[in-house]
Amino acid sequence: MKNSCIIIGAGLSGLTAAHELLKNNWEVTILDKGRGVGGRMATRRAGEARFDHGAQYFSTKTPDFKAFTQNFLQASIAKEWHLEEGDKSFSHPRVIGINGMSSIPKFLAEGLNIRTNEKAIGISETENGCKVITETGNSYEANAIICTVPAPQAIELLQKSEISLAEISILENIQYQPCIAVMASLNAPTNIPSPGGISLENSNISWIADNFQKGISPVFSVTIHANPAFSLAHFDDDLNEVGKQLLSEVSYLISAESVESLQVHRWRYSLASERHTDNFLVSASTKFPLIFAGDGFGIGSIEGAFISGKSAAQNLLKI
Ligand SMILES: Cc1cc2nc3c(=O)[nH]c(=O)nc-3n(C[C@H](O)[C@H](O)[C@H](O)COP(=O)(O)OP(=O)(O)OC[C@H]3O[C@@H](n4cnc5c(N)ncnc54)[C@H](O)[C@@H]3O)c2cc1C
After folding, report:
1. Contacts of range 166-175, beta carbons closer than 8 Å, 24 or more positions apart
2. Can you give the CATH number for the domain in which 249 is found?
3. Residue 56, ligand 1, Cβ within 6 A
4. Which end of the chain is more exposed for a tag (fewer CB within 10 A), N or C?
């Protein structure tokens, strides 16, 4: 029987793992609970306005990830975003998707066997391997599973499954920061200095991006990220009110009169603040290969998700 794997999660780590297995002639099925692919590399529209409301950019530190990124740069899917020289925190180029961050996972997803709107709700052992049951009632069988969902969601999935994980404490120790993201479309430019991205300190806001200056939105629009403490404290509040409060705190950059529409998104899991040092985790409790990966492992963020997904798949090839 051909080697087969179910990958849970079509974010960067899951998509990277899929490509690694496909290169080695594995049969791969990717399941994602979302309507589209990309997970936290997310871009949203409101009318003509476009917003990156999850990840904003990524840097490339390792040679392997630099080489991987070249594929997107050469295919004009991504471009470098040079935040101004002299700004200490942004002294080297960042990479962004040309039409928003979701362009990158969408490009990677082309030709893959991906089932969206399929939330995995149970994993079990079968005679020949393993099975994943989804909320829609579908069932997928394979020889192995790579689970790339944020650790708290992996724990939730395990709790509903007919298997136990001896290494559960490793997943329990992985922690994520929450983030409230505000997206406003505007009828006038902002006062955000070129090239349109600033980090704030001593503020409830950690980051503001001018999506028009960034080049991803054809009309004026901004994304505001509240800092983790503010996001946690206001996570369950009326989101529209929270959005208005955050906008009023930066009225010197974005005039209230210019705001045409407002959307607010709650990310329960944004950046992984406490990570497992290894790039992935292999379950020792199951007869079939079950590997956990994602940005909760290794160096974190987008580059960490890539490294984790790739190394999880390479490990599976060796089992
Ligand atoms: C607000 C915000 C700002 C950020 N800023 C940056 C930044 O500027 N730079 C940077 O490098 N990183 C940033 N990040 C982090 C970055 O987005 C992540 O590190 C990276 O995208 C994680 O990829 P992943 O594949 O590990 O996980 P994800 O992208 O979360 O993918 C996991 C996928 O699993 C799916 N899923 C979950 N549960 C199930 C289930 N039961 N069944 C099926 N599917 C399921 C989800 O729908 C999701 O698509 C930011 C994140 C957020 C939210």
Report:
1. 166/283, 166/284, 166/285, 167/281, 167/283, 167/284, 167/285, 170/276, 170/281, 171/281, 171/292, 171/296, 173/274, 173/276, 174/150, 174/272, 174/274, 174/275, 174/276, 174/296, 174/297, 175/272, 175/273, 175/274
2. 3.90.660.10
3. yes
4. N
